[in-house]
Prior knowledge:
With 179 residues, the protein is an alpha+beta fold. It has helices spanning 18-25, 28-31, 42-54, 102-117, 132-140; strands spanning 3-4, 8-12, 59-65, 70-80, 85-92, 122-128, 144-152, 158-166.
Amino acid sequence: MTDRGQRVRLRPLQPQDLDHIVRWTNDPEIRELLEGEYPEEPDEGRLWYQRACSDRRSRQFIIEAQDGTAIGDIALGEISWRAREGELRIRIGEKAYWDQGYGTEAVRALLAYAFEELGFRRVYLRVFTSNRRAIRCYVKSGFLPEGRLVRKASDGMPKEILLMTARPDSRGHRLPQTS
């Protein structure tokens, strides 16, 4: 998939992107916003990339700005082809692009791909309740809160997580018609 928003393009993850992924993962300000496992070292990055590319239950993309700069990554993971659903994960790793709507455009592009091309019925996500910037992005993109839970963050401290879901009829997305 190569999909374009007005200012972003989603393209498949490539080996040369691993330097960005590792750098973003090791930034403490970004890391505190992440839940899940991401590579911290180049060797881990290569293994992570191999798993990501061979996993039928995952679609990984790099978010590029109009000028081709890699500014983040976005994915559909935990895909259930039977239930037609998956979990969205996003990270804008280049801080110069924060608070400018790039994340919202990337999320909307990925939702269009999930609903219109893959025929998904639901996309869900988990976000720390302290991450107000991300929550605003998700709400603008059509996600609604579904529940809360508590998990340990990368620093070992418990953090509250908001569960959110988007469906094809939220924000203008439609399920493809089947014959």
